Amino acid sequence: MADFVxxxxxxSARGRRPNNEDSYVADDKRHVFLVADGMGGQDCGERxxxxxxxxxxxxxxxxxxxxxxxxxxxxxxxxxxxxxxMTAGSQQSAARRMGTTAVLALQQEDQLxxxxxxxxxxxxxxxxxxxxxxxxxxxxxxxxxNGTITSDQARQSPWxxxxxxxxxxxxxxxxxxxxPLHLEAGDRLLLASDGLSNFISPDDLRAGAQEKLHPQExxxxxxxxxxxxxSRDNVTVxxxxxxxx
Length: 245
Fold this sequence. Notes:
about 30% strand; alpha+beta; five-stranded antiparallel β-sheet; Phosphatase 2c, domain 1; six-stranded antiparallel β-sheet
């Protein structure tokens, strides 16, 4: 069983938006990492992502204290946040539907449990390999996965920003899938909002890992890079380094 030295970096930038609807958690003491990208316009989106950031870490810890299996703890936490956002959203007009994406990672010893709802991705960088651990729940990406359109067409599609799953979505009836992973020394985990991921390539992530930057330096560099490349959205990233003790 591996012991890791865990180092964390994080940054969230408003970018060119009037306010920041992203929230994040970078808790290296409780080993919970989260990025949530709110939607619904200003106070609605900000409230939804804030609810996710408040509820999910607390429920994860409560579930683990009750000896719930980590993957189930992750699912339960996302479910509770979903229900709370649904309740809060029911007080808003239909034109201002409240919701948020959420990408969550929980570390337990040498295991990582990752789940995502929406289009805020999680990446694992291991050596020269960059793997996206989550799928994007956009209509365009769903069409690409079933072969209706190509990946290139999906990137240009008007449906690329239309989500069919997110916390607060009334049509979401199934719990999110949790992906368990075995961690290795040298692994880098990156969680991001789409304001960053849409402007960063696997080559950028591979190069950053090879530079062996401190996670905070890397987080700052990635956010600046996304903004320099024209991201007009809020830009948020959490970087976690798992190194040998």
